[in-house]
Amino acid sequence: MSKNSIDTDDLKESIKEIALYRSVIVMLALLCIAGYAIYYLAVWAGIEAHVLDWLHLVIRWAHVVFGIAWIGASFYFIFLENSLNRTENLRDELAGNLWAIHGGGFYYIEKYKIAPGEIPKTLHWFKYEAYFTWLSGFILLLLVYYFNAKAYMLDPAVSNISAGTSVAIGIGTLIIGWFIYDFLCRTSLLQKKKTFAIVGFAIITLIGYILTHLLSGRAAFMHVGALIGTIMVGNVFFTIIPAQKAMVRAAKKGLALNPELGKYAGLRSLHNNYMTLPVIYVMISNHFPATFGSSFNWIVLAVLTLASVAVRHFINLHEQGRHAKLMLPFAAIALISLVIVTSPNKVKFSSDEPVSFSEIQPIIQKRCVSCHSSKPTDDTEKVSPNGIMFDSAEEIHKMADRIMVRAVQTKTMPQANKTGMTEEERDLLGRWIQQGAKLN
Ligand code: HEC
């Protein structure tokens, strides 16, 4: 092929890509307009909280589905890379091959050392899963955290920043965190894998420490998870895909491939490999107050990260037929220590005086029912959170154990202590539950 015809190929490719991004942007804009119209209608009908709830559900679903597609593909390719036959009966141009059976069919895969002589007409790329995971995640962050910053980002027991500041800190963490990571990757540190891992871990822990001292524990955890996710998507978008494009371009032009390019992308891909398990752990743990609600939550975050990296390392080596004997016991010990360390302090109560339900009901009424009711009066919680209501004595009695955990032991309720619950009230409530949560 002449040089010119190849350049037109490139051009066509770029035009196609631009058209695609344009249609995605148009689609997103249409979605936003439709979303706004629906929201407007919902406000008009007085059911905005209900509609927002459904929106959360739909986007959460999309986020998980994109995430599964992305991380699933990532797991699959890591497995391929780790399990390739690299020695027996290989053609010269191959790095390895692999046989597999799945879904009632036999599959045979070959990996090239550099690139095939001719780039095939249909070449499958894996990138949109990553982009859409990030996009849906960011929309969730907006919907759940930033739109309700007062309730979800702040904790007056942690700091006195404003809602606006907390959102700026959240978004700033993602941007600055990415630049720190990207800068480190451009230094010679990138080649020193172990040192890089230690420095990266130290920085993530430091960010976790800072965030847990500015934001609510839950928001801090979420932002560390979002930062890890952003770094992973950034790796795909800013380095891995461009490197691959350059490789394809060079192969099409019959130019020698710059092996450094593939190696550079490979190292960043390796970082993503190790970040897959921590990011999932952090995202899920944000539903568990025992993790983010403990007073050393930043250490919990660090240990969770470390333990899940250890599990990933174990899996990586296992797929290569090697055994990292210490990794699983290490992860198990780390987790067991967390269970012990985060176990609620035995709360010391002021006395053993019997507490009657008639003393408790007004407290719940005053501090909890604005949110936990069939008709909440709170300005942001328009439907009872997690379906939990304290309108009747039976409902309170039924939830006594969880009330003990949330309002007495971890003090993660009332949320952000919005209703100003006092220590005396927590003490009374705790004594009443300890004495059997009797209703008369
Ligand atoms: C400002 C609103 C608000 C107030 C006031 C509030 N909660 Fe909650 N509550 C929430 C939200 C939001 C959730 C769901 C998120 C979560 O679990 O953190 C929740 C969840 C819960 C749960 C279920 C989760 C679990 O761990 O089982 C319990 C129990 C609970 N709250 C107890 C209380 C008690 C007791 C009070 C009063 C002392 C209270 N809440 C006051 C907003 C509130």
Which SSEs are present, and which pair or pack?
Layout: H1 3-45, H2 48-83, E1 94-102, E2 105-112, H3 128-146, H4 149-152, H5 163-185, H6 193-212, H7 217-252, H8 259-285, H9 289-292, H10 297-319, H11 327-341, H12 357-367, H13 393-398, H14 400-409, H15 423-434
Antiparallel strand pairs: 1-2
Helix pairs in contact: 1-2, 2-3, 3-7, 5-6, 5-7, 6-7, 6-10, 7-8, 8-10, 10-11, 12-15, 14-15
The protein binds heme C (HEC).
Uncertain segments are none
Bound molecules: heme C
- Oligomeric state as shown: single chain
How is the largest sheet built, in terms of strand order?
1-2
The description of the largest β-sheet is: 2 strands, antiparallel
Order of helices and strands: HHEEHHHHHHHHHHHHH
Amount of beta strand: under 5%
Distance between the termini: 90 Å
Portion of residues in helices? 55-70%
> Rg from C-alpha positions?
26 Å
Separate helix tally: 15
Return the domain count.
2
Let me know the number of strands.
2
Characterise the protein shown here.
The protein is mainly alpha-helical and about 450 residues long. It has two domains: about 45-340, no CATH class; about 355-435, no CATH class. Helices cover about 65% and strands about 5% of the residues. The chain contains 15 helices and two strands. The chain has helices at about 5-45, 50-85, 130-145, 150, 165-185, 195-210, 215-250, 260-285, 290, 295-320, 325-340, 355-365, 395-400, 400-410, 425-435; strands spanning about 95-100, 105-110. It has a two-stranded antiparallel sheet with strand order 1-2. Helix 8 (about 260-285) packs across helix 10. The longest helix is centred in the first third of the chain and has 43 residues, at about 5-45. It is globular. The mean pLDDT is about 90. Bound molecules: heme C. Heme C binds near residues 388, 415 and 419.
